[in-house]
């Protein structure tokens, strides 16, 4: 890939690095590799097993073939409907640049990822997130969970604070907790982080400022909310103003959908028909808004291909990416060679447009599942008690219930919103439907900065549901049961 | 696997855990999974993509088949000589317990590894390392580099000290350095750590004692040395006496060989002929000596199968392994599903004895390479200047040269051993042969405890070579050139 030198360079932001990141040195042994492959030099330097000893001579994978006319769940019946990747130890010349040979992918080396995979991902990045500065790079890792954990090591010292959405992915909070990093919540509504609240928190902050904002901007987990282009721009400006980094954790980015409409006939007309339309319909990433180099983007194959690929990547300014190389050298080293050969081989056979075809069909699947789910919610839930915004991205939906409307809110529950949440949770499970209580995702700062006033009195609870894992007919049953549980709990007849 | 309840339990050693390890909590979301799969419960809890959307319906791999009569480098010519693994989304009933279906391996879950792979590795462990206590466990990870990094997080706090071999794997030192952990060297000779030196260091230690000893006991990197059974027993006793943990990093364990003999005719008679003989010929692991639960063993497929599998595992007492589960949940999650399905599928088809066949042939290959290399060293090197013990395991050899015998040691080099090392290094590279200077592997404690006397005056330097990566004919050329470089440097004619 050629660098677009017409773009400006990013700002120097390396002073944001942690003490640990600054301690990391390149291994002295790397110096040896500059000799490796020199003509007429016998290299007795590196402890690499000979690839002839790797016991896998060939891997053949079978996948559906673009443009996936029968949808992504369709299982091809014969080779004519398949993309077949035959990956060998030594790539034949007509597949060079397409396949990652097993003699290389199963060997040590290429910490940042195999070149054929990196090339594909960089081209993809350029198509979807046009960059505003020239010195960016990406590193392939084992997924966003690893990426986030490494990122905390790279930028946060023990005792630092980071900002997160008020409700967020519990595992991301736990990673910070283990590193003794304080997580501080930023207020959100049904459309994600409220920019003015973010600005207020930072403006009124006393003491060492938070290092970064961690956000899941699209199809947020657990609330299902998505930030609009306008909010993203505002939030980016606030981050620049207060000099904090933005980490966008975007596993659900390509699960963007049409807005929900109750009008069933209007739905089919709204679907995406071509690649250009698809890319244009995407909400702007923080990465693409970034002129300074303060955004780190975490991407993953987990939701677009499969979680067990354990393939993800981080995109950011090159001097930051270099610090991730140093971490990976002494931890995961790189993601599995099998994963890279198979994912790389399949994606390179599909091509950029074939991959977009896959994503377009994925969007169609999730849109349909979302539609059926939301139809069902409107049919079976007591909407008069609820705040509910149908999701426009991701796997999750959340509905907020006004606990104060429970007839026994003050008597039996003594005004405790969480007790009402628990009562609904248990009744729904008893009725045979399971969703996760929103309180399980709450960001609780270990130390509240002194300027924070007492939190408003909580009135609402929420549940996180998902239409991802369950077939449609079961979802409908599950929603109906959950709706009945709420109604019975609140004494609503219908 | 059934626990052998006739064995005693390990000691409670959890007070060795780090502050970070103690901070780690199980994700509250794990509580949800106890509901998953309950009859007639619609589970809308987990954000798992449907396996029908995973774009890989089948993977077929081709490997050599046991007993590998033509050696492990032989490429099978047709299916009759191959182990062919066809791994599908849903395993047919006759392959249950053998194959890890893609619908599961490519999904989230099974942080500790897929059950079919764990079962194989536990059976293998029981065969090779008969355990002395009952509450042991293992966790599959992405290899020993990750394992070591996680282990440091689990047991060491910033500022702690660990003991390592005087010369050791640079990347392991760098992992500790980044975490602000001091590494302190224990003196070794051509047969590895000197037990009395370890005891002396610990007995004379002032201040907070080192947490653990990190050792590569077999085919040590970089010295090629291997600890005898006797030294292992002594070292284990010393660890118990001073209450430190032992971490055995054992990627080269199965690259054990016959002792080198100059008598070419005697060589073939010494090779291993059956499984029982092979297992019996293995040096005792620290794990198998451990009665208390203070040994953590790091195993890897990197040298026995291929580095790019990124499959390794840690074996230790169960309460320690549980802390590794917590780390993996918020970092790598688990090793690649492709890797687990392919490695598990191949190993389970080979069976325990087929895998031993593979290891026996691997041993034969490395023994032959070692023999040719050592023959060549004795032929071309100025042995009168050297200390050299032919390795009995691993990929590496080291030869120690008495720098004081350099005619210009005091004049040109001002008595600086490292300057002589550099002169040899550069001359050898110029002659077309490359090995790595031993000084690059030196463990230098960031803080020397006050009781340490000044180090003895250094007289010897060494180089690390390897016969792993290079074909035999090239090795011979490389050794000859390196020998000439030393001789010319020292003004020796022959």
TrEMBL record, chains A, B:
Keywords: Aminotransferase, Cytoplasm, Pyridoxal phosphate, Transferase. It comes from the Eukaryota. Its cofactor is pyridoxal 5'-phosphate. It catalyses: an aromatic L-alpha-amino acid + 2-oxoglutarate = an aromatic oxo-acid + L-glutamate. GO terms for molecular function: 2-aminoadipate transaminase activity; aromatic-amino-acid transaminase activity; pyridoxal phosphate binding. Pfam families: Aminotran_1_2. GO terms for biological process: aromatic amino acid family catabolic process; lysine biosynthetic process via aminoadipic acid; tyrosine biosynthetic process. Residues 106-443 form the Aminotransferase class I/classII large domain. InterPro entries: Aminotransferase_I/II_large, Class-I_PLP-dep_aminotransf, PyrdxlP-dep_Trfase, PyrdxlP-dep_Trfase_major. GO terms for cellular component: cytoplasm. It is found in: Cytoplasm. Its EC number is 2.6.1.57. Belongs to the class-I pyridoxal-phosphate-dependent aminotransferase family. This is aromatic-amino-acid transaminase. It comes from Saccharomycopsis crataegensis.
């Amino acid at each position: 890939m050629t660098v677009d030198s017409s773009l400006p360079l990013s700002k120097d932001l390396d002073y944001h690095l942690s003490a640990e990141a600054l301690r990391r040195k390149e291994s002295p042994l790397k110096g040896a590799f500059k000799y490796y492959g020199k003509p007429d030099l016998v290299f007795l330097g590196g402890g690499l097993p000979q690839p002839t000893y790797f016991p896998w001579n060939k891997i053949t994978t079978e996948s559906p073939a673009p443009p996936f006319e029968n949808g992504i769940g369709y299982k091809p019946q014969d080779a004519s409907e398949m993309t077949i990747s035959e990956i060998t130890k030594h790539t034949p010349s007509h597949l060079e640049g397409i396949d990652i040979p097993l003699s290389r992918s199963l060997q040590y080396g290429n910490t940042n990822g195999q070149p054929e995979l990196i090339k594909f991902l960089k081209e993809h990045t350029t198509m979807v997130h046009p960059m505003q500065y020239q010195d960016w790079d990406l590193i392939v890792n084992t997924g966003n969970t690893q990426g986030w954990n490494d990122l905390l090591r790279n930028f946060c010292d023990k005792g630092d604070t980071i900002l997160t959405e008020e409700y967020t992915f519990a595992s991301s909070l736990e990673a910070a907790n283990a590193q003794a990093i304080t997580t501080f919540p930023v207020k959100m509504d049904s459309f994600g982080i409220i920019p003015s609240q973010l600005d207020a928190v930072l403006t009124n902050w006393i003491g060492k400022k938070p290092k970064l904002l961690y956000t899941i901007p699209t199809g947020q987990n657990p609330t299902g909310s998505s930030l609009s282009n306008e909010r993203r721009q505002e939030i980016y400006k606030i981050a620049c103003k207060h000099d904090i980094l933005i980490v966008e954790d975007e596993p659900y980015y390509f699960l963007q959908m049409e807005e929900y409409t109750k009008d069933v006939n209007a739905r089919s007309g709204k679907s995406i028909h071509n690649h250009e339309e698809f890319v244009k319909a995407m909400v702007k990433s923080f990465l693409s808004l970034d002129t300074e180099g303060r955004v780190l983007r975490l991407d993953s194959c987990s939701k677009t291909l499969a979680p067990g690929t354990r393939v993800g990547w981080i995109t950011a300014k090159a001097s930051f990416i270099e610090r991730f190389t140093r971490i990976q050298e002494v931890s995961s080293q790189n993601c599995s060679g099998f994963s890279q050969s198979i994912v790389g081989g399949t994606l390179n056979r599909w091509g950029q447009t074939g991959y977009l075809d896959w994503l377009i069909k994925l969007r169609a699947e999730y849109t349909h599942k979302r539609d059926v789910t939301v139809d069902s919610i409107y049919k079976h839930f007591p909407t008069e008690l609820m705040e509910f915004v149908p999701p426009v991205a991701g796997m999750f939906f959340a509905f907020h219930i006004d606990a104060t409307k429970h007839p026994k809110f003050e008597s039996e529950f003594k005004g405790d919103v969480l007790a009402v949440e628990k009562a609904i949770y248990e009744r729904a499970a008893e009725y045979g439907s399971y969703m996760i209580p929103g309180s399980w995702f709450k960001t609780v700062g270990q130390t509240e900065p002194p300027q924070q006033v007492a939190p408003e009195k909580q009135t609402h609870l929420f549940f996180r549901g998902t239409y991802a894992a369950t077939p449609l007919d079961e979802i409908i049953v599950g929603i109906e049961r959950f709706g009945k549980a709420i109604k019975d709990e609140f004494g609503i007849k219908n």
